[in-house]
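for the recovery benchmark. tokens below, seq after
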């Protein structure tokens, strides 16, 4: 035991005094446990293993390999390949982390970072209104035109590129500036850059609502290029020939000492933004929206599980794919 007999005997006596019962009784060839001693030994037998497990748990937590991470995202960003690639890479690398995903608009994401209900957020950096939040930008994403199918057919012989100036007389369906200031400003600025003031039509609170109203032929819109993956019946997408507006995306957190678990996610997201995800950032499932309606689900690639598992992520009020993934849509504020 690495301890001499007199000190050991003294420690045993001190322990017996503290317990109030004898743990050993002497026999001709040494000592034997008393009834109290056997009960005490049975109770403490696993303590060395528990101590080693506690040390390992503390070390893993310090490395950000366990714990809870709450990540928010905007509805318009979820189809950007960086978002599912980041989540997939993190789930593969740190499967024991309880990862919670929550959808809000950009202003709600900023509020969530500030009130502590979110640890990280994929958001449009234009919504950040102070220096207390640090944003790590990803490559810019082009904006494209979303048109009613009949309107697209009437423009330039249904080519895949149109001139933004050809939409000068169309109402623009946009997310209101107080909810989505970045995309609103990008669309308006693009129109002004090519020489016209856009007609602001029916507002829509979320990007899917925008596409639904476009399908209803209430107007046109400018949306991130990744929205092409939403095959909404009645909506056609066209690149712009005379303007280069972009949608900016960043991963944000409160400025200061970010916990290890957050640093791990941030590091992996930077790799995903550069196309270093193991499966390739281009793999995002194409969602078919019937009648312009999107179900409460997001691409299966967010779950980090094999395609064949058949689970759905983001059912209303339910858990996500696997026991350590959950998804919530936050009501608009």
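predicted aa per position
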């Amino acid at each position: 035991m690495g301890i001499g007999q007199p000190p050991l005997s003294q420690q045993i006596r001190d322990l017996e005094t503290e317990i109030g019962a004898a743990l050993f009784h002497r026999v001709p060839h040494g000592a034997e446990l008393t009834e109290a001693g056997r009960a005490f030994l049975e109770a403490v037998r696993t303590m060395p293993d528990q101590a080693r497990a506690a040390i390992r748990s503390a070390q893993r937590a310090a490395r950000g390999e366990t714990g809870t991470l709450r990540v928010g995202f905007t509805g318009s960003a979820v189809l950007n390949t960086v978002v599912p690639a980041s989540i997939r890479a993190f789930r593969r690398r740190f499967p024991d982390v309880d990862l919670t995903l929550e959808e809000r608009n950009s202003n709600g994401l900023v509020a969530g970072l500030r009130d502590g209900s979110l640890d990280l957020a994929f958001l449009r950096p234009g919504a950040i209104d102070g220096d207390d939040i640090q944003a790590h930008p990803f490559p810019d994403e082009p904006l494209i035109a979303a048109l009613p199918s009949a309107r697209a057919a009437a423009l330039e012989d249904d080519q895949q590129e149109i001139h933004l100036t050809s939409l000068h007389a169309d109402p623009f369906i946009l997310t209101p500036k107080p909810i989505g200031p970045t995309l609103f400003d990008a669309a308006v600025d693009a129109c002004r850059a090519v020489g016209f003031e856009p007609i602001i039509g029916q507002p829509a609170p979320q990007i899917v609502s925008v596409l639904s109203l476009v399908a209803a032929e209430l107007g046109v819109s400018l949306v991130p290029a990744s929205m092409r993956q939403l095959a909404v019946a009645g909506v056609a997408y066209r690149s712009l020939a005379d303007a280069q507006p972009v949608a900016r995306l960043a991963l944000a957190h409160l400025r200061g000492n970010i916990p290890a678990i957050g640093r791990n996610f941030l590091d992996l997201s930077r790799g995903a933004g550069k196309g270093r995800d193991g499966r390739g950032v281009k793999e995002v499932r194409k969602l078919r929206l019937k009648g312009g309606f999107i179900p409460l689900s997001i691409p299966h690639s967010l779950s980090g599980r094999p395609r064949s598992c058949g689970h759905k992520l983001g059912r209303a009020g339910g858990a996500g794919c696997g026991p350590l993934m959950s998804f919530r849509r936050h009501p608009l504020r």
